[in-house]
């Protein structure tokens, strides 16, 4: 996988999605072409990438700036790179919300599955140094089974926990299940 411009959002999102698939027991090599979608979110969009692009343009001049950085001024780019790599054929989109953005992404992903938009959805959030993605689908979709139902997940999301605290809560649920 080549990350254009080497920007953090691309790398961290790609790795978080791969780890979420692996954690769900899904072999990343055997899923190409499946009806899998991604919803990503964060609280800042790609403001830092926009600033990097502008500074590069101002410092390098009109004819020699790195045009390849432009793609990273769009917050959906880092999701699209992952969808292309994994050959997903479901919907891919980005949303931004200042409050409870991860909870909103998970809820929308759940609704999309219920409405038949995709059989499996990944929903998550990527910030500058943290990324957390969840694989959602019906129980039969996952070789390892499901960690919890959407109600338990929503309860955790609505508690305003940071990423490490949220991950710890989901680990507790997994341990209780096993």
Structure description:
The chain has 178 residues and is an alpha/beta fold. It has a single domain (4-45, 75-177), classed as 3-Layer(aba) Sandwich (Peroxisomal Thiolase, Chain A, domain 1). Helices cover 43% and strands 15% of the residues. The chain contains 6 helices and 4 strands, in the order αβααβαββαα. The protein has helices at 8-23, 47-60, 77-86, 101-114, 150-157, 163-177; strands at residues 36-42, 92-96, 120-126, 131-137. The chain has a 4-stranded mixed sheet with strand order 2-1-3-4, with helices on both faces. The chain is globular. The termini are far apart.
Low-confidence stretches: 1-6
Q: With helices defined by DSSP (H or I, 4 residues minimum), what is the helix count?
A: 6
User: What is the total tally of β strands?
Assistant: 4
Strand % is 5-15%
The helix-and-strand class reads: alpha/beta
Secondary structure: elements and pairs:
Blueprint: H1 8-23, E1 36-42, H2 47-60, H3 77-86, E2 92-96, H4 101-114, E3 120-126, E4 131-137, H5 150-157, H6 163-177
Task: Give a quick rundown of the structure.
This protein has six helices and four strands; from the N terminus they run H-E-H-H-E-H-E-E-H-H.
């Amino acid at each position: 996988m080549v990350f254009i411009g080497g920007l953090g959002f691309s790398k961290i999102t790609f790795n978080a999605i791969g780890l979420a698939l692996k954690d769900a027991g899904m072999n990343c090599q055997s899923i190409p072409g499946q009806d899998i979608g991604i919803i990503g979110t964060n609280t800042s969009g790609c403001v830092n990438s926009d600033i990097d692009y502008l500074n590069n343009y101002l410092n390098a001049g009109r004819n020699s700036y790195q045009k390849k950085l432009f793609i990273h001024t769009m917050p959906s780019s880092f999701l699209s790179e992952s969808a292309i790599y994994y050959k997903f054929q479901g919907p891919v989109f980005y949303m931004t919300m200042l409050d409870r953005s991860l909870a909103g992404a998970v809820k929308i992903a759940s609704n999309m599955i219920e409405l038949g938009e995709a059989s499996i959805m990944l929903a998550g959030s990527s910030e500058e140094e943290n990324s957390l993605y969840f694989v959602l689908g019906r129980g039969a979709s996952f070789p390892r089974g499901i960690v919890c139902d959407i109600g338990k997940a929503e309860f955790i999301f609505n508690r305003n926990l940071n990423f490490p605290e949220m991950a710890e809560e989901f680990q507790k649920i997994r341990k209780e299940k096993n």
